[in-house]
Specification:
The protein contains 13 helices and 14 strands. With 396 residues, it is α/β, with parallel strands linked by helices. The strands form three sheets. Strands 1, 2, 3, 4, 5, 6 and 7 form a seven-stranded mixed beta sheet that branches. A five-stranded mixed beta sheet has the order 11-10-14-12-13. It is flat.
């Protein structure tokens, strides 16, 4: 899974990325600090079954577990800021959009302080609703451009076959992880003349590109710098103008400060928590900064919003579930005796057989059945898995 961080220059993308990954990236308050994309690993947070199963501490092979909260790795990519005209190459926009082709979903980082204009330059009283309008339009035009590259040539050829039409469109967008089934969903949802696609108007093409992009590259808004003066008004305006989008207030600066203080063992802090505990000697400056975060972010919003954004992308937007495979269904361990060593993120509706193939192709090909480790009951290959299932795969 790859999640793309998008937004205009100086909106806080690199800070958001560093807060999630603690990677060493350049952060500055001027446009186009980022040119080459930054890639790193963030973590979604799930309740570990070790608590309800009354097990000793689990032994994750990937990620980590703290106080019964399992942190599961996901890949993040932070691309350079996008500006109006990016779909036509402005500000190296084509290059930056190409960096996003493999992303499964987008997090749009929006500066809700109103202190940066459309190009990321310092200002006052800017309306961030314009940033959402701009990015939505540029992403739609990106898809439209890809569609129009071959539209005239294949639209006439496939007019007599709906099946051939969906297949051709899917092939054209295959680099963006678009499947034939996605194209069918868009066609069923909209009122499109499949009989004569060559006669579609420019508006119909744009509508099709928009709906295909929304389905295959879903996006939520991280309303960054939520602790700044006037941010609440801008957040309310965003929610009013875009009721269909998930909009989460957040403060990347605050999360980064908390994670770095935790790493330095100055505080105890678990990402996503509503508070922290001081355990080291703080300077007056550090103490003041942490108190400000507690007062203006944690007590107001309940958390910094960063962990909530990551979790919402994976579990709300993409509708994934977490599944824990084991070798010993009685002890919930691997062959080596490690407790709940693995956790996989699977699309909602995934089956026991899907899990087997995700673990390894050979396991999928030799699949016989599976066992629900909680109940001890055998389940078939077509059984849909649920969030936090613990499963043993039986092979021949």
């Amino acid at each position: 899974m790859l999640i793309g961080l998008v937004g205009k220059p100086s909106c806080g993308k690199s800070t958001f990325f560093k807060a999630c990954t603690l990677a060493n990236v350049e952060i500055a308050n001027y446009p186009f600090t980022t040119i080459k994309p930054n890639q790193g690993v963030g973590f979604v947070k799930v309740a570990c079954p070790e608590v309800e199963l009354n097990l000793k501490n689990c032994n994750p092979q990937h990620g980590y577990c703290v106080n019964g909260k399992r942190f599961v790795p996901v890949e993040l990519i932070d691309v350079a800021g996008l500006v109006r005209g990016a779909s036509k190459g402005k500000g190296l926009g084509n290059q930056f959009l190409d960096d996003l082709t493999s992303a499964d979903a987008f997090i749009h980082i929006v500066d809700v302080s109103g202190e940066t204009d459309a190009e990321g330059k310092e200002t006052k009283g800017y309306n961030p609703v314009q940033d959402v309008q701009m990015l939505e339009n540029e992403l739609d035009l990106w898809y439209l451009g890809i569609l129009k590259k071959v539209w005239k040539s294949f639209a006439k050829k496939v007019q007599s076959s709906k099946q051939e039409f969906t297949k051709s469109v899917a092939i054209q967008f295959s680099g963006l992880k678009v499947k034939e089934e996605d194209v069918k969903k868009v066609l069923l949802k909209g009122d499109y003349n499949i009989e004569r696609p060559a006669e579609w108007s420019e508006q119909e093409l744009l509508k099709f590109a928009h709906e295909l992009r929304h389905l295959t590259k879903p996006m939520l808004i991280a309303a960054n710098k939520c602790d700044k003066e006037g941010a609440n008004v801008n957040i309310d305006n965003l929610k009013k103008d875009y009721p269909e989008l998930i909009i989460i207030p957040c403060s990347a600066d605050s999360e980064l400060a908390l994670r770095e203080a935790s790493k330095a063992e100055l505080i105890d802090y678990i990402p996503g928590d509503s508070d922290f505990t001081v355990k080291g000697d703080l300077s007056d400056k550090q103490e003041s900064a942490l108190e400000s975060i507690k007062k203006n972010v944690l007590k107001v919003y309940g958390n910094t919003g960063i962990q909530q954004v990551l979790n919402s992308v994976v579990f709300e937007l993409l509708r994934y579930i977490s599944v824990f495979p084991v070798e010993n269904e009685h002890r919930f361990t691997s062959k080596k005796g490690n407790v709940l060593p693995d956790v996989y993120l699977l699309a909602s509706g995934s089956t026991a057989l899907d899990l087997a193939y995700v673990i390894h192709t050979n396991i999928g090909e030799s699949f016989v059945s599976a066992i629900d480790a909680r109940t001890g009951k055998k389940i078939g290959k077509d059984t849909e898995l649920k969030n936090k299932d613990v499963v043993k795969i039986i092979t021949r």
